[in-house]
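Appendix B: complex inputs.
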Amino acid sequence: MTIMKKMLTTVAAMSMVLGAGLAEANTLKFAFQGDAQSLDPHGLNETFTLGFLSNVYEGLTLLDDNLKLQPGLATSWEVTSPTTIVFKLREGVKFHNGNSFNADDVIFSWKRTLSEGSDQKVRGGMVADIKKIDDLTVEVHTKGPQPLMPSEWAWIYMMDKEWAEEHGAVNAANVKEETANGYSLNHSNGTGPFEVVSRQPDVKTVFKRSENHWNTNVATNVTEVIFTPVKQAATRTAALISGELDMVYPIPVQDWSRLDSEEGVSALRGAEARTIFLGMDQMRDELLYSNIKGKNPLKDIRVRKALAHALNLEVIKKKIMRGASTPSGLMIAPQVNGHNQALNTPYAYDPELSKKLLAEAGYPDGFEITIDCPNNRYVNDEKICQAAAAMMAKVGIDMKVLAQPKAKYFAKVLAQNNYDTSMYLLGWTPGSMDVHNVLEGLLSCQDKENNVGLYNLGNYCNARVDELTKLIQVETDAVKRQAYVDEAMQIAKDEVAYLPIHQQPLSWGISDKITVNQRADNAFDFRYVVFK
Amino acid sequence: MLVFSFLVKRLFQSFLVLLSVAFIAFALFKFVGDPISNMVGQDTTLAEREKLAERLGLNDPFPVQFFNFIKGAAVGDFGLSYRHKVPVSQLIAERAPATLELAIISALLSVFVGIPMGVYTAIRRKGLLSRSFMTVSLVGISLPTFLIGILFIFLFGVILRWLPTFGRGEVVQIGFWTTGLLTWSGIKSLILPSVTLALFQMTLIMRLVRTEMLEVLTTDYIKFARARGLKENAVNFGHALKNTLIPVITIIGLQLGLVMAFAIITETVFQWPGMGMLFIQAIEEVDVPVMAAYLMMISLVFVAINLAVDILYAFVDPRLTIDGGSKHG
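Resulting structure:
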């Protein structure tokens, strides 16, 4: 036993020496559960891919460590008319291949976001035209007033026109065309602090620190980054503890105590800006999945209130999220622009009131309903549904949980399948970090033509909320805007449009060798990684 | 002439098997989920989604989709991966070396460890070592692969820190082939996954050899060999083992396909960048072209092995051609 112990100490000491050697080179090794879809900056509008690429590509504006908007490749912007924004571009910015960044690249990148294979058409489509004033000034004409355009465009990455033309990557890579235009999938040329050295999709991507990055104040002292996707959570955790990786995410909530008890690693569990909530079908005259025929109980506000008061958010926080979630009364997280803490008190847990309300609504014995739930999308998503079902049972509602992998879940409940659900669990982070995205996507009446209410799966619909949403979109006065936001949020809350649960925790595992910034949108920004 | 018609018949049957695998697989893809919502972000408009579905031919009626698929598959063209946007055949070619290397090393391991262990346990039936081999082999046969993999990771990766917990290490590119066998980190990375994958086959071979050996050792010619005064080793290996190998070889051949299929789980646990990993990822992302190509490839391997076995039987025993298709592989 003592020999074993000695061996272990020797091995540990040796690995520490090796670790110290690595720290000199400052190679950051990290893993995520999947890979970025590709290196094409306009290929997929999804948090991980865009966050991954934010180390390589940059937009006119940037989000800092607190998700606040900062100047990026534009040093300033000015709204000169309701539909015109003039951007002053940063001088002396070089792409990784040495080319200079200028107004032509802005216009080129915008046009590229509108090409067939692009998934950034919504953001690109906010703009009607871009005029080059001079090499370092562009005048952006928006389609109608778009005060949010600068913050939305933090996700529109700038590409080098010459490079794209040289490599046949003028259009975003497209799944139906031949591979000749696939160059941008595995090659990159951005302006960011890191450049991609090599990439094998799903296997390994190697970055190195770019030498000519415009911002000399970037905190990181990392010289090289090696990224490997690791699908299995147990393998990820093991690789972190064994010291093979410096940072892995996500870590299963149930592994936190294990990481905390290990030497040299810890679990970072900040608050994510993602709000988890339950939605209810309020459009059909008869629910698809219920024993109540001929009417829809969820159209009755008393029933929705009864459901709201039946949920015990504190228990979900304690038992399922290990104390790390933030119970929410709003559909947006505190990090989101427009959040008002005064409105954030959740519905009180009051099962007696629930029973009373149900009896008043004509359901003294409750009813049956099925809730759709993903089981591999959000933190402990299926368990939340099961807990909710148990809580509903206490007030007489027999809630069945249909939990499926996200591919099947989304195929069932989304617009493409005519919102085939009676109740569902969904999570939402507004990409723009602004409340308008939530109001338009989740709280406005469904309007497929105008792409409004696309994720309002149960079609909660209130004319005043719709009206306010439109006002909020164009209002530039902060005080007036917040008054509109508060009014809309209060209506939605009073009418129990949704049942907000919580903001889920981020869950990263990091080695004690490094410090990182855990951004609330779960993007991993190498700019803030520092080896101690 | 009889042999020839038998071959034609067999080939035709193999073709039918492949076609029905394709049909069943293709029908099942309808239930895997919606490829589109995995290909676009949450802000993408309905009209855009619809356009994408149209371009991918997802709105075509099932027979049309199936026909297009078969038409492409017949010439080895499985289209572009929805996720990677590159030809599926290219993806599979990139990933095949990792899986084949893992499968071959595991097969070798199970043969060169399994057979000696089988012989040993047969000769020294009551020995302590034999008993422990037998006990360990029970574990190998009864524990699921992913559990063994995780236990190995925990023991050798986390506690002892001798071996890497995931990945393939540094690989060397030789032409179209990538190999991890030429670097130290590649070899170290190969140990845990290959042992995990080999364990089941190893125990199977060991138990098979042991049973066969026990039977052979009681036969008369072994007794005569001993009576002739031959050395123990010459009797055991030269005479006894040689006669047990025929069924063992048959099993090994048939199991090769299984090793590849089992590799899916091992690859997932160890994040081994092979075809199994590619397939699992494809299921998660509803990458239909990749799923279809992988399933077709695996069934082609099985069909080819069975066809080869059938043909060999036909040559060995021509009577089979007369009662035709009564034998099934």
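The mean pLDDT of chain A is 92.
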